[in-house]
Design a protein that fits this description.
This protein is an all-alpha fold and 73 residues long. The chain has helices at 15-24, 29-36, 41-48, 55-70. It starts with 14 loop residues before the first helix and ends with a helix. The relative contact order is 0.11.
Length: 73
């Protein structure tokens, strides 16, 4: 592995991207909290849940879609 230039990774190294991807994909934060073994969701969000560049755009789009479909119910 050293010759390939690929850094050595441990399971612990993958916690941050796993939590960030799960939350960005819409996973329930409480489920991610349990997955990581945290005592509270605030720790999970504060430590591991970085925003992806498109997350705020996705929220805006989702809200707009909910508003648009609310009028048709």
């Amino acid at each position: 592995m050293r010759d390939s230039g690929v850094p050595m990774l441990t399971c612990h190294d993958l916690r941050h991207p796993a939590a960030s991807i799960a939350i960005s994909s819409g996973a329930n934060v409480k489920a991610v909290q349990r997955m990581l073994g945290h005592q509270n969701a605030a720790m999970t969000l504060d430590t591991y849940a970085d925003l992806f560049d498109t997350d705020l755009d996705d929220v805006t789009t989702s809200i707009s879609n909910k508003i648009a479909t609310a009028g048709t119910m």
